[in-house]
Amino acid sequence: MNRLVYFPVPGRAEASRVALELSGLEWEDVEVDGDTFGQMKSNGDLPWNMLPILQTANGTIAESSAILRYAGKFSGLVPEDEYEAAKADEFIDGMGPLARVLDTTFGISDVEERIALRKSLFEVGGKGAENLQLLENKLGESETGWAANTTNMSIADLKLFTELFALFSGNYDGIEADVISRYPNLMNYHSKVANEDRILNHYSGISKDDIRWTFLPGAFS
Ligand SMILES: N[C@@H](CCC(=O)N[C@@H](CS)C(=O)NCC(=O)O)C(=O)O
Fold first, then answer.
1. Closest Cα to atom 1, ligand 1: which residue?
2. Of 39, 74, 109, which residue is a domain's last?
3. Cα–Cα distance, 198 to 21 (Å, whole number)
4. What does the pLDDT look like over 99-155, one tens digit per residue?
5. pLDDT, tens digit (0-9, with 9 covering 90-100), for 40-56
6. What does the DSSP 8-state code read for residue 56?
7. Angle between helices 14-23 and 64-74 in degrees, nearest 10
8. What pTM value is reported for the model?
9. Within a domain: residue 175?
10. I need a surface site. Which of 12, 79, 152, 157 has the fewest CB within 10 A?
11. Pocket of ligand 1 (CB under 6 A)
């Protein structure tokens, strides 16, 4: 049995959760709190001292993108064409700055200061806005509409869809959902992925009050 261990939020594990669900592998979604994380760390259970990890029969895989690539192979979401597979990998690795965009804000305990910094990140000239514009341009250049211009949906789409839109779930104070409406290609992309059969089915039990509401069709319209 595979065990995906992470905190009880979409974050860096959600793309792998979706890939595992589509893979046909037996797996368990193990959601832990900070105390359990601390114990796992001191027990030496975390290869790079961070979550997520995937515990498999062969051993533990760390790093969210490595887990996604592994699960993606079982779910048919790694392109068979080597060039397309490399472009999907490029996209995943290129998303690093977006994944880290809020890092400087987590340590700020003053709520107003934290909110002000987060808002500024997504205003013109901010790092967040720069990242969104880069993604907006990349989606505009994609002939297939998939993130890495692959023939079919790939692991790059799982990563982009889950990590980008989860930023606007309300889980991070100061980041407002209406920011997304400034980016028409991101809006179209949201609709394309949210309405893709496997994604639609995966989130069919999710309500609008759930932290995963950002993955539902029409979430940002
Ligand atoms: N590059 C790693 C980053 C993982 C990461 O930043 N994990 C965070 C949670 S999102 C963590 O474990 N934080 C706890 C800590 O650093 O003490 C990945 O993509 O898996």
1. 63
2. 74
3. 10
4. 999 999 999 999 999 999 999 999 999 999 999 999 999 999 999 999 999 999 999
5. 999 999 999 999 999 99
6. E
7. 20
8. 0.97
9. yes
10. 152
11. 11-12, 50-52, 63-64
